[in-house]
């Protein structure tokens, strides 16, 4: 029985601000299983209780979090008239949850993609302010060297004037590298590498924060994230939110 504060539960539904909701609760406008509850901090069963505002029942939508190994050739979108999207790869039950991809991977990029129905979570993962690193493996044409590594470290300025935050370039074997960025501008990694004369032939996202894709999932496979995975994404204090 997942217990949750009544004001938090109503806040997650997005019907009013937390302070407005507290007032509504104190005025007796909210009932739980038919009885008025006037203390906003009351713990209620978020899945089993029937909660109503002014007599109208509200459905609590619980937030869900998944990771997927996105295959190349599939769009990071919820639907598309013509092309296959990542939502076409999941179960019908998941399609009914209102999931959407957290940020985008290009159609030809593979690797770690998160799916959720929690907009705040998605924003936290994507926002450069959160400082969450996204790490990519790239196969490129051309040669990269220490000068390129330093240019990434300083923060690249792309051909159209776009300024990139400092990023990490690790040189692997010939034509292979790892790129770690904290932002997700349009075609960012491809444009960064192209700006150093190394157009991308293949791109795969390996990790987001401390959450590593590894070989656990088949291409197109997915699994639900556990609390420990979410803690890895954000760092130590993630479980409180
Ligand atoms: N950067 C890109 O250029 N493409 C992606 O899909 C992800 C990051």
Order of secondary-structure elements: EHHEEEEEEHEEHEHEEHEEEH
**Rough shape?**
elongated
Average pLDDT for all residues: 91
Ligands in the model, by name, code or SMILES, are:
uracil
Describe the structure.
It is elongated and about 70 Å long. It is of the alpha+beta class and 241 residues long. A hairpin with a 7-residue loop joins strand 8 (100-101) and strand 9. 28% of the residues are buried. Helix content is 22%, strand content 27%. The strands form 3 sheets. Strands 7, 8, 9, 10, 11, 12, 13, 14 and 15 form a 9-stranded mixed beta sheet that branches. The chain has a 4-stranded antiparallel beta sheet with strand order 3-2-5-6. A two-stranded antiparallel sheet has the order 1-4. The chain has helices at residues 6-12, 18-26, 92-95, 119-126, 146-154, 188-195, 227-234; strands spanning 3-5, 30-32, 35-36, 43-45, 51-53, 56-58, 65-70, 100-101, 109-116, 134-140, 168-171, 176-181, 200-208, 211-212, 222-224. The protein has 7 helices and 15 strands. Uracil binds at residues 105-106, 109, 187-190, 203.
């Amino acid at each position: 029985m997942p217990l949750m504060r009544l004001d938090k539960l109503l806040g997650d539904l997005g019907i009013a601000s937390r302070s407005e909701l507290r007032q509504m609760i104190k005025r007796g406008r909210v009932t739980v299983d038919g009885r008025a509850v006037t203390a906003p901090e009351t713990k209620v069963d978020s899945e089993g209780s029937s909660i109503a505002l002014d007599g109208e029942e509200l459905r609590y939508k619980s937030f869900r979090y998944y990771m997927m190994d996105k295959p190349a050739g599939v769009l990071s979108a919820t639907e598309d008239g013509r092309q296959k999207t990542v939502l076409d790869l999941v179960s019908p039950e998941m399609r009914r949850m209102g999931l959407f991809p957290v940020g985008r991977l290009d159609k030809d990029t593979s690797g770690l993609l998160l799916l959720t129905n929690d907009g705040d979570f998605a924003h936290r993962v994507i926002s450069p302010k959160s400082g969450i690193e996204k790490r990519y493996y790239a196969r490129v044409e051309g040669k990269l060297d220490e000068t390129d590594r330093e240019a990434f470290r300083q923060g690249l300025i792309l051909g159209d004037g776009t300024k990139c935050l400092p990023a990490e370039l690790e040189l692997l074997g010939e034509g292979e590298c790892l790129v770690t960025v904290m932002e997700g501008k349009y075609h960012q990694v491809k444009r960064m590498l192209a700006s150093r004369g190394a157009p991308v032939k293949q791109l795969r996202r390996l990790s987001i924060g401390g959450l590593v894709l590894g070989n656990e999932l088949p291409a197109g496979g997915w699994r639900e994230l556990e609390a420990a995975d979410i803690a890895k994404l954000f760092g130590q204090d993630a479980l409180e939110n």
